[in-house]
Write a structure and sequence with these properties.
The chain contains one helix and five strands; from the N terminus they run E-E-H-E-E-E. By secondary structure, it is an alpha+beta fold. The strands form two sheets. It has a three-stranded antiparallel sheet, with no helix packed on it. The protein has a two-stranded antiparallel sheet with strand order 3-4. InterPro entries: DUF3107 (IPR021456). Pfam families: DUF3107 (PF11305). This is DUF3107 domain-containing protein.
Length: 74
């Protein structure tokens, strides 16, 4: 799953691949935004952990769960 996170007042964005499902990611972010949490964390496929401060969280784009098609379609 391709994840792209926008940070307020930053021209760059976090972009990584995760093995979590879209529903898991959506629930985790919604819980962090609705609560008094200072940050939320997501892990990528390589084991790296990303901590995103809720106060500067801009947006999150969650890619499609279907794998990309390779080759030509007739």
């Amino acid at each position: 799953m391709d994840i792209r996170i926008g940070i307020i007042n930053s021209a760059r964005e976090l972009n990584f691949e995760s093995s979590q499902t879209a529903a898991e990611i959506q629930a985790l972010v919604a819980k962090a935004v609705d609560s008094d949490a200072k940050y939320f964390s997501l892990a990528d496929d390589k084991g790296s952990l990303y901590l995103v401060p809720v106060a500067s969280f801009g947006y999150i784009e969650i890619g499609a769960e279907t794998p990309r098609r390779v080759g030509f379609v007739a």
